[in-house]
Amino acid sequence: MSDIFFYTILAITGLFAGVINTLAGGGSNLSIPALMLMGMPADVANATNRIGVLFQSITGVAGFAKHKKLPTDNLKAIIFVTIVSGCLGALSSGLFSAEVLKYVLLGSMILMSLVMIFFPAVIAKRDESSAKTITLHPKSWGMLFIAGFYGGLIQAGVGFILLAALAGALQYDVVRANALKLVCTLVFTIAAVAIFIYQDLIMWLPAMALAAGSVCGAWLGVRVSLNISPQTMRWLLLLMTLIATCLVLLKT
Questions:
Q1: How far apart are CA 102 and CA 156, in angstroms?
Q2: Which end of the chain is less packed: N or C, by CB atoms within 10 Å?
Q3: CA-to-CA distance for 45 and 152, rounded, in angstroms?
Q4: How far apart (Å, rounded) are the C-alpha atoms in residues 31 and 114?
Q5: Which residues contact 182 (CB under 8 A, 6 or more apart)?
């Protein structure tokens, strides 16, 4: 396989992952298996994938903010919880062997996609005035902590957990929940990337190819976020996840 083909596939994968992560979550269900199929151990793929997530999150947050869809009332508290838990999750990744992490990744992909299919109420449509204050709803702290820890540790599917906290517990409408979800993802991804750089787990050329596509995907995702069908996205994501999971399992 030539380097040009290798990086082109990663860029295309990043494009789709960026769209999916911006609209709902689960784009890493595509990008992590793509990196693993190209020969990376699970822990290296997990770390390398974060560069694409970082750049797509920056692009998505900027896009939602430009369209005035980024609420700021709970922002400081949300950032505080996710950065602490994200650091703890990233630091905990060293406790798992590459073999164990691979199956945790694959299992989380399937589990979170099934949650999205069978429990769609976590992103039910709401009026924007229905949002609640985080300090008055302790369970949202716990859900955000779990999401941040999971995101720091693995990343794949974390958008679903964040949406459950932001749209489910705090009752933001789905567009604003998505904007806040990207802020959370950006925060714990910065922490995770710093840790993974220190651990020398990132392969930079594949990471930047993935990031280039991810930026384009996030830019596109912001623009279609008000019109995409959540039901169509859930079924498409489940199908792609199952196919990618089967391919990785067949390769091992």
A1: 11
A2: N
A3: 14
A4: 18
A5: 21, 22, 57, 60, 61, 64
Cα→Cα distances 219→34, 109, 159, 193, 215, Å:
21, 24, 17, 22, 6
User: Do the Cβ atoms of 12 and 37 come closer than 8 Å?
Assistant: no
Domain total in the chain: 1
C-alpha 237/C-alpha 229 separation (Å) is: 12
Note the pLDDT tens digit of each residue in 176-215: 888 888 998 998 889 889 989 999 999 999 999 999 999 9
Q: What is the pLDDT of residues 213-242, one digit of tens each?
A: 999 999 998 888 767 766 676 676 667 666
Structure tokens at 132: 């609640």
Q: 123: exposed, middle or buried (C-beta count within 10 Å: 0-12, 13-18, 19+)?
A: buried
Structural domain that includes position 236: 3-251
Phi and psi, residue 52, nearest 5°: -65, -45
The model's pTM: 0.79
